[in-house]
Design goal:
This protein is of the alpha+beta class. It has one domain: Roll (Thiol Ester Dehydrase, Chain A). The chain contains 3 helices and 8 strands; from the N terminus they run ββααββββββα. It has a 6-stranded antiparallel beta sheet. A two-stranded antiparallel sheet has the order 3-8. β6 and β7 form a beta hairpin. The longest helix has 20 residues. The chain is globular and about 45 Å long. Keywords: Hydrolase.
Length: 154
């Protein structure tokens, strides 16, 4: 079995994807909306890494959810079926109820495909009431952010 998405490294946290034929429009380029799925999927794999378990299990256990408050893209090139690319995840900012994950999509040759900013808002699980970033998530985000900045200074 060939996987079309997998973690290639954890520092920096990087996902490798292969574009599926069904991700593309009749002109043979990835539909814009599919990039949203790529980013959300990368975030879920990132959460699994930093929380040490399935993200939905962790959120259920701790009673919070992270629906998307904002999602912004800067597209710099297109992708076609069978193209492989990496998505590198970093924690750009942590605020009181939200945080922003910065994601760089790059070809394997290093050319930028897109830059995305995903900003979830923390809510009570099962409600749409905003809450402060739960300590378990905040600590995990800060630990990853600290490890990243330490890696940049080594």
């Amino acid at each position: 079995m060939i996987s079309t998405e997998y973690v290639v490294r954890t520092q920096p946290f990087t996902i490798r994807r292969t574009v599926k034929w069904g991700d593309c429009d009749p002109a043979g380029v990835v539909y814009t909306v599919v990039f949203g799925e790529y980013v959300i999927s990368a975030a879920e794999l990132f959460y699994r890494h930093i929380l040490g378990e399935g993200p939905q299990h962790a959120k259920d256990r701790h009673g919070f959810g992270t629906p998307t408050r904002a999602l912004a893209f800067d597209f710099q090139s297109s992708l076609r079926p069978d193209d492989e690319f990496d998505i590198e995840v970093s924690v750009e900012e942590i605020r009181s109820r939200t945080y922003t994950l910065l994601m760089h999509g790059r070809t394997l040759a290093g050319a930028t495909v897109f830059i995305a900013r995903l900003t979830p808002i923390c809510v009570v699980r099962g409600e749409r009431r905003a809450i402060p970033v739960p300590p378990v998530l905040k600590q995990a985000l800060l630990a990853y952010q600290g490890a990243r900045s330490g890696a940049h200074h080594s």
